[in-house]
Amino acid sequence: MAPLLRSAHPGPVTGSDRLFTTGFVLLTVADLGYFTAAGVAIYTLPLYVTGPLGSDEAAAGLAFGAFAISALVLRPFAGVLTDRLGRRPLLVGGALLAAVSLALTAFVDSLPAVIALRLLLGVAEAAFFVAGFAALADLAAPSRVGEALSYNSLGLYLGIAFGPPLGEFLVENGSFTAAWLGAAVLSVAAAVLAALIGETRAPADGPVGPRRLIHRKAIGPSIGFFTSLAAIGGFLAFAALHSQDVGLQNSSTPLFVYGVVVVVSRIAFAKVPDKVPSLPLGAAALAAIAVGLATAATWTTPLGLFTGTVLMALGVTFSTPAFFSAVFATARPDQRGAASGTASAFIDLGLGGGPIVLGLVAQSAGIPWALATASAIALAGSAWTLALNARRTDRQPNVPR
Question: 22-202+213-395 belongs to which homologous superfamily?
Answer without folding.
Answer: MFS general substrate transporter like domains (1.20.1250.20)
